[in-house]
Specification:
Elements lengths: L1 H19 L7 E7 L6 E8 L1 E13 L5 E6 L6 E7 L5 E6 L3 E7 L9 E3 L2 H28 L4 H28 L4 H9 L21 H8 L18 H11 L5 H13 L6 H16 L6 H10 L11 H14 L12 E3 L5 E3 L7 E7 L4 H18 L4 E7 L4 H11 L5 E4 L7 H4 L7 E5 L5 E4 L6 H20 L1
Parallel strand pairs: 1-7, 11-12, 12-13
Antiparallel strand pairs: 1-4, 2-3, 2-5, 5-6, 7-8, 9-10, 11-14, 14-15
Helix pairs in contact: 2-3, 3-4, 7-8, 7-9, 8-9, 9-10
Length: 486
Amino acid sequence: MRKTILLSLLLAVVVFSASAQKPVKDGYKIRVKFTDVTDSLIYLVHYYGKSLPTIYKTDSAKLNSKGVAVFERDTAVLGGIYMVLMSDKSSYFEMLLKNGDDFSVEADKAGLPTSIRFKGSPENERFVGYVNYLMDYAKKQEALIKKLSEAKNMADTNKVRGEFGTLSKELKDYRNNYMKQYPKTLLSNIFGALKVPEIPEGPHYLEDGKTIDSNFSYNYYKEHYWDDFNFEDERLIHTPIYDGRLDEYFNKLMLPIPDTIQYEADQLLGRIKNQNEIYKYTLWWITNFCEESKVMGMDAAFVHMVENYYMRGKAFWLKPEDIEKYADRAHKIAPNVLGNIAPELNIPGLDGKDHSLHAVNAKYTLLIFWSPDCGHCLKEMPLVDSVYNAVLKKKGVKIYAVRTDGTIEKWKEVIEKNGFDDWIHVHDPERKTRFRSTYDIYSTPVLYLLDDKKIIVGKRMDHSNIAEVIEFVERKKEREASESKK
């Protein structure tokens, strides 16, 4: 009987041990121990596209009286660079996480980030080695910056610059060697995402073999910009890298022209697997970039993104009502993008007669929406009038000005006080023309520039750039006319 009981207890221990060591299929199990912190909450957080302070909470746990806590989850998780964040919300350490991870980590808060010790995670052990290497690299950089500031002549300066080059090459070699030794790992893909194209040494010639290609460096850098970024590894979205790469690509490598942005957006999204977290972030980022751009005409790119992605079911993470908001915004903007014929307005003027926008006989028509109750309008309209009298009138410009609100008395008072006598003044108090929705007027003042065919050639300008836009339009027309003759 006693032997049977002992055997049963032994079997129970064996079964318990086996279940305790059962590998994690989905989720994670991370045992955390702090040697100098107890009875405190800690959080498991991650990046999302960009660096701190934008972090997202994944899990939380409480350190017991021995400084031990366990983060545990049994459903799939998207890995990346995660952080264990202390309750003070400022102390933390980073680590690599992938779905199915089961490891332990010990640290001293006072010694972060160098006090971290991993067990059961070889890649994190290598990651700690890389972090330590970076800290040493930063010290060497600081020393070289100091040497550069103390340089006494050009020879000293060139010598220090050479040392910078050597140091930079060491970092590149470190990452490249790691990628060769541990291919397809998360850290290797992070290093790939950080790589920038190295321009081949020249000289580089055009097709004739004689003329130096002055654009070679730019074109090569742009064409190879994404070569080492593994878009199939969704975990890269949980790193602080991607947002910066997008920002450089669209803000520094692209001409701010709607057609160019649309083409590049389509090309980039085309190489990312749909229904992917990186795809999701990319589509959101580019759309937001287009919508918030201060570059005139970029709203056309926003309309392109909405019509070709959001309205075609490719923004898979959004609810129907959210898609509708994007569609409604694009619908309001679409009639007024550059290159479209301005919607007709036929509105009563100060004289009580209807005045047609399309009937204005002018080389250019400046369409203005303003209000006598708008403080900014009261500052901007006199400035517009000054530019009009000094420059624009000679260029064949006429002004068609729409009062958006405010009393008729105040409207007439402002016109008379400022001498806006040469403008076509109209108002639609009964809102019969629905000009607000037609021209997307949600604030004032708003200025549109129309050519002789009433095609929109400029929008949302101010007094400072109207003449510049006209000069740009005329240069463009001259260039097109010259090319058509060839």
